[in-house]
């Protein structure tokens, strides 16, 4: 496979070619879609996988193992892309993802399926990071807003379409077909990526920071395991939770010590000392936390509190996801037109926070439709945080560290997403357990078996208690939005 034929790209500081959109967008859109849709597509196939293998207790690891592998791999791809070329590493990432998908489809046992999902995560961990870096490499700074808007809208589209596609494919052809569907998409993506011009590569003599990768794994794995246990908030699991968090803290301390001494560190610690860079990372983490918490718990609210069916709850989320996509495209266009960046999340996420506070106060008295459209109003500016974060880190890092910069935001977003779901779950279940212990037990039964078995009077009382506890979830997500506003308002780099 020859990757050296196309000419080198033009300097991003000069005028872009007229066919920039056709040159850049198709090769990066499909990898981003695959990355964003993967988790939700596979999640809908979990019941069918459980029916085949019977590993109900360990079933969540099909998703969690992939998430851990992808989170750890993202910084590695960022560094390797800076050293060996982002186009080359994207092809490698796609090939690994495709091979692992084929292995998942033919896995004869749960253990092999789990191993293949880890391998798939190691391949998929580079898709989002390298797509962001390739965008920064080929698109001039002033035009990156529009292109980041396309990417953000595509991420939301992938997350939204994923459950629908996964459910349809699983029902029609079985869970094996979910993984087989990746194969032609990956092949098309590889061919499109090879159309990109040859990129700029850095020095290869520094080598790769394998000790840093090991220590990063030692930090991420126990942290995500602890976060998954925190979401359930089982008092009996608190000692084990403390052990996992202690292991993660020790690994983090060792990682930071090692990174300061590494010749070519895996993490961009030097960039993190720059105020604009670390504020952008915090914005990325809080953006991931907000969206993940809402997409995880809003279906539960619609089904348990308002009595909507699973299909209806999916339809009620369409205004929210559509608003995020539309807002991302419009924000990106405004950034490219005006050159301003920080002003959009500063004011936009303030509106988001106010809408969430309004939900905390009035959500139980709103109809489903009113609730859905209030969520849409608050979500119009949700995508502006990630767009501003990516543009900021790319501008601060410069052309030769685009991979490390994109990986930093992606790692922050992944960890923030895990924390956001866990924090919202801990608040919800914690408030229920503290204020209404009996309702907490009923809530778990309602999640497992539905609410049809409950007497009407008990159901109304339980829904009132659960709706009260959900006020804490809305306020928790509002805190994430307020944090974004604080970072954006104090962002030193405010325009391109």
Written account of the structure:
This protein is mainly α and 496 residues long. It contains 19 helices and no strands. The relative contact order is 0.13. The N terminus is likely disordered.
Question: Any key phrases for this structure?
Answer:
496 residues, mainly alpha, 19 helices
Q: Could you tell me the mean pLDDT?
A: 82
By secondary-structure content and strand pairing, the structural class works out as mainly alpha
**Total helix count?**
19
How far is it from the N-terminal to the C-terminal residue, by CA?
A: 38 Å
Helix content class: over 70%
Number of strands: 0
Rg of Cα set = 22 Å
Main beta sheet: none
Order of helical and strand elements: HHHHHHHHHHHHHHHHHHH
Shape: globular
**Strand-residue proportion:** under 5%
Low-confidence segments, ≥5 residues, pLDDT <50? 1-15
Quick structural summary:
This protein has 496 residues and is mainly α.
Fold topology:
Elements: H1 20-53, H2 61-84, H3 86-105, H4 110-138, H5 144-173, H6 175-180, H7 182-193, H8 210-232, H9 238-261, H10 269-272, H11 275-305, H12 310-316, H13 318-338, H14 343-362, H15 368-379, H16 384-397, H17 402-435, H18 437-449, H19 456-489
């Amino acid at each position: 496979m020859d990757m050296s034929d196309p000419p080198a790209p033009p300097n991003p500081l000069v005028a872009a070619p007229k066919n920039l959109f056709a040159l850049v967008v198709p090769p990066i859109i499909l990898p981003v879609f695959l990355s964003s849709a993967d988790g939700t597509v596979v999640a809908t196939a979990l019941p069918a996988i459980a029916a085949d293998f019977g590993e109900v207790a360990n079933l969540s690891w099909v998703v969690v193992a992939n998430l851990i592998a992808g989170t750890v791999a993202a910084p590695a791809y960022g560094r390797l892309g800076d050293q060996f070329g982002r186009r080359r590493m994207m092809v490698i990432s796609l090939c690994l993802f495709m091979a692992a998908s084929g292995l998942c489809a033919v896995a004869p046992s749960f253990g092999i399926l789990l191993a293949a999902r880890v391998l798939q995560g190691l391949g998929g961990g580079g898709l989002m990071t390298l797509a962001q870096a390739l965008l920064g490499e080929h698109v001039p700074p002033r035009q990156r807003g529009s292109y980041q808007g396309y990417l953000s809208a595509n991420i939301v589209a992938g997350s939204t379409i994923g459950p629908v596609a996964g459910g349809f494919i699983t029902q029609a052809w079985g869970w094996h077909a979910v993984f087989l569907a990746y194969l032609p998409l990956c092949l098309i993506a590889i061919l499109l990526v090879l159309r990109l011009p040859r990129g700029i590569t850095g020095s290869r003599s520094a080598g790769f920071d394998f000790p840093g990768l090991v220590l990063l794994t030692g930090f991420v794995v126990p942290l995500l395991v602890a976060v998954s246990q925190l979401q359930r908030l089982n008092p009996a699991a608190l000692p084990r939770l403390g052990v996992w968090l202690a292991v993660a803290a020790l690994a983090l301390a060792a990682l930071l010590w090692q990174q300061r001494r590494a010749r070519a560190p895996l993490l961009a610690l030097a960039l993190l000392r720059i105020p604009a860079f670390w504020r952008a990372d915090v914005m990325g983490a809080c953006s991931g936390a907000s969206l993940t918490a809402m997409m995880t718990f809003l279906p539960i609210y619609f089904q348990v509190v308002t009595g909507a069916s699973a299909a209806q709850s999916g339809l009620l989320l369409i205004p929210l996801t559509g608003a995020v996509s539309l807002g991302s495209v419009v924000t990106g266009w405004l950034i490219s037109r005006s050159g301003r960046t920080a002003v959009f999340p500063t004011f936009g996420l303030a509106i988001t926070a106010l809408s969430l506070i309004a939900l905390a106060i009035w959500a139980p008295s709103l109809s489903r439709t009113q609730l859905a459209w209030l969520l849409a109003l608050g979500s119009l500016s949700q995508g502006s945080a990630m767009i501003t974060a990516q543009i900021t880190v790319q501008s601060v890092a410069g052309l030769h560290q685009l991979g490390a910069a994109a990986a930093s935001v992606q790692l922050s977003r992944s960890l923030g997403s895990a924390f956001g779901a866990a924090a919202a779950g801990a608040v919800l279940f914690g408030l229920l357990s503290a204020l209404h212990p009996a309702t907490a037990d009923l809530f778990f039964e309602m999640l497992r078996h539905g609410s049809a078995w409950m007497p009407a009077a008990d159901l109304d009382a339980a829904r009132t208690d659960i709706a009260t506890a959900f006020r804490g979830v809305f306020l928790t997500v509002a805190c994430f939005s307020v944090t974004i506003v604080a970072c954006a308002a104090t962002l030193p780099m405010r325009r391109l």
